[in-house]
Amino acid sequence: MPAKLAIHGGRPVRESDYPIWPVSGPREEDLVRQVLFSPQWGGYHEFVGEFEQLFAGLHDATDGVSAANGTLALELMFLAAGIGPGDEIIVPAHSFIASATAVSRVGATPVFVDIDRDTFNIDPREAEKAIGAKTRGILVVHFGGLVADMDDFQRMAKNFKIQLFEDAAHAHGAEWNGGRAGGFGRAATFSFQNSKAMTAGEGGILITSDEELAEKARSLANGGRQPDKGWFEHFELGTNFRLTGLQAAVLMGQLDRLPEQIRTRSDNRKALDENHSAPGVQFQAWPDAATVHTHYILPGRVDEAEFGCSRDEFIEAMQAEGIPVRPFYPHTLQKNPLYRTTPKRALPCPVAEQACNDSFWLPQRVFLGSQADTLDVTTAIRKIYEVYKPPKKQTVQ
Fold first, then answer.
1. Less Cβ crowding at N or C end of the chain, within 10 Å?
2. Is 318 exposed, middle or buried (CB count within 10 Å of its CB: 0-12, 13-18, 19+)?
């Protein structure tokens, strides 16, 4: 007899919670205190510039321009790159809404394309089909911290003479063939929102090795000012996107933690793969070329015919067993109410549509504890499978 599931009155696999997020300690406290006892708490504290250069350098870029959040960083990137009315930017059908609205807010049109079934990243074949006369660029989202196939996207950008942008909100420290996320295209953005793998509660950054774009972005983010010019002299139609010194202080502490946290999550993911045995549940692929996967989240999918229950039944059972699994996005980006009236173009996205019904994800904190903590995921999946598994097919003699 299989063990009784927690939703049926049995004892759950986990009766304690996973590690909390965000994580902080004496390093962040010391850096914040330095700002608190300084005369400058805002965007002109020296920690802001120091963090910008550290972060950009660690992601294969020469310049960083910080922003109050990742959404604004995306808008800043498109503005600085000259994207505007009449332009189209190709985006994946699955991402947080800001990947699309940043395009719309600068007056351009998002073009939605399908994702790859195994990686959950934008499918390069579908992206190439979408390129047209108005295409000015592709926004590649590294979903869950898995860098997309940047060999294909760099080739595509070169062949079609379009700009390559990266939304690396999930991919702090991630790599593709040894190259860091954020360093493959003309510019990239990262988010430091509360759930992200590096956080200051809110915050974002644009990174680039394009000196002209960096100069434009820095001016736009700082009221249209220029270096060495007067405080009340403004040269661009800019605004105030600035990150504060307090946020930069926290982020410098978070940057110190990042390498070890990535190693912990990666080691625990490997243990999960080695011990996962229930058919019908497939986790996001981890290609060899993805030399560092941050595992900010780990997406997966449930094959109801093979596993024996639906995705929603699976999630209900997993949560009852103490595993904080969440359903995938409820709809593709182009199905948001906003895009019923906002200009868009969309190719057929059957894989993304299916993911709304059969996919889920595990948050990073599941992989930040011990290996035993992570293996509770496989134990819970197997326990659920033993209850729901479909009957064996009879072999006809």
1. C
2. buried
Question: Is-contact 57 363, C-beta < 8 A?
Answer: no
Model pTM?
A: 0.96
Look up the CATH architecture of domain 26-254: 3-Layer(aba) Sandwich (3.40)
Residue tagged 């243990």 (tokens): 271
- Which value, to the nearest 10 degrees, does the dihedral of the CA atoms of residues 355, 360, 364, 369 take? -150
Label residue 393 by pLDDT band (50, 70, 90): low
Across all residues in the chain, what is the average pLDDT?
Answer: 97
CATH code that applies to domain 6-15+259-388: 3.90.1150.10
- Residues 308, 389 contacting (CB under 8 angstroms): yes
pLDDT at 1 > cutoff 90: no
Q: What is the 3-state secondary structure (H, E, C) of 85-148?
A: CCCEEEEECCCCCHHHHHHHHCCCEEEEECECCCCCCECHHHHHHHCCCCEEEEEEECHHHCCC
The encoded tokens of residue 387 equal 């209850």
Report the pLDDT value the prediction gives residue 396, as an integer from 0 to 100. Answer: 54
Q: Indicate the residue type of 249.
A: A
Q: Counting beta carbons within 10 angstroms of the beta carbon of residue 173, is it exposed (0 to 12), middle (13 to 18) or buried (19 or more)?
A: buried
Residue ranges covered by each domain of the chain: 6-15+259-388, 26-254
User: Which amino acid belongs to residue 14?
Assistant: R
pLDDT of 391 > 90? The answer is no
